[in-house]
Amino acid sequence: MLMAQGRPARLHYMANTFRVLAPGDHVVCAASGERIAIDDLRYWSVRRQEPYATADAATAAERVG
């Protein structure tokens, strides 16, 4: 969607998938603040409803609680 270019998406994270609540072309990593293209998003927390740029960031967030 052209109108969503450059804007963060709002997603609902579920086990093995996510649902787009508001269109955008990226989300922001909860740990690092790094932009993650929607097509590259692989790691998130269902419980926290947070995206992560890397497996290490997701693992570290789970350790914190």
Automatic annotation (TrEMBL):
Entries under InterPro entries matching the protein: DUF2093 (IPR018661)
Domain of life: Bacteria
UniProt name for this protein: DUF2093 domain-containing protein
Native species: Sphingomonas vulcanisoli
